[in-house]
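My current task is to audit a protein record that another person submitted. What it holds is a sequence and that sequence's fold in token form. Thanks in advance; the entry in question is below.
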Amino acid sequence: MNKHLLILGGGTAGTMMTNHLRRRLPAHEWRMTVVDRSDKHLYQPGFLFLPFGKYEESDIVRQTRDFIPHDVEFLQAEVDLLKPEDHAVALKDGRELHYDVLIVATGCRTAPEETEGMLGPKWRVNVHDFYTLDGARALRDKLKSFEGGRVVIHINEMPIKCPVAPLEFTFLADTFFRERGVRDKVTLTYVTPLSGAFTKPKAAKKLGHLLTDKGIELVTDFVAEKVDQEINKLVCFDGREVPYDLLVTTPTNMGDEAVRRSALGDDLDFIPTHKHTLQSIEYPDVFVIGDATNLPASKAGSVAHFESETLTDNVIRHIQGEPLKEEFDGHSNCFVESGNGKALLIDFNYEYEPHEGNFPFAFGPMKLLEESRLNHLGKLAFRHIYWNVLLRGWPLPGISRQKKKPVEA
């Protein structure tokens, strides 16, 4: 009987792993199954552009099945429980799937219910998010008619998917309101629980300057106790208040609810994972990738891409009884939209901060930690790379799974 590789999640990480491993595992020895609650695959970086009318929904929604090899079974179903002691996964429809190797790629979800008052009667009236398709769509409709007032962009707590996205939204909002001729009627405030504009000091300094240059207020070390929708104020545990007319919040991000039901995660339902091998800390036949992990790495698509290359090798090694590679170094790179048709590019890992230089080769053509039109075009081009290269598990020339040590100036 064929052995069974089960992948939970048909998003970015799960789809990449499916394509990688289908090419590496003999079909006559291994059958593969992907389980996801949705038959739609969403290009989540596109949620950033949808509220400003830069993308249409057709640009960011595809059929999940289109990116999964034809000889891989796809089940549209919701996971109820993970039962690693039994090498099984229970689905909500009553079926139970048994596996030899399990890859958990269930991602993370927004949890606005975790903050008092966020899901009040004004949710998606003047309290919005853009981390979901429904949220981005509702915010697009709101911005079309917004003529002025106090706009607050807020991060509730870390970690979050794509940690630069709220900053990017802020910069794009500045440009959006300028183009509409109402920027002088809008006050923009960026509220973060961090002590700076970003998690990495070098990038935080650069991005903080951009906020100042654009006349955007920065409020740091703000841990929200509640959203008071009656008086339109964001309230901090230390008593500080930030008033708003439009609140664009990034709610608490948490792991999949099935992880909580299975008691396999931490306080935020992220699964304890070896940060270099991507193997579950507790269960040798379980591997975790992408936003589902508790790794101290960015929850971003590029991280899942780099993880997938190491994890593919390690799944094969595990099957063959070989030692796993302790290789993944937290490598992440991402474009940061800075408004006015420009963007920065940052590249970092567990050990090294974002630094200046050229990317992806010694001669460039892109600049790191520097605004440019080319970086912006790279951000836009990435959508096509995502659909046609990244999801299908093909390599990206010049971009290594491990970050090179930065050259000191």
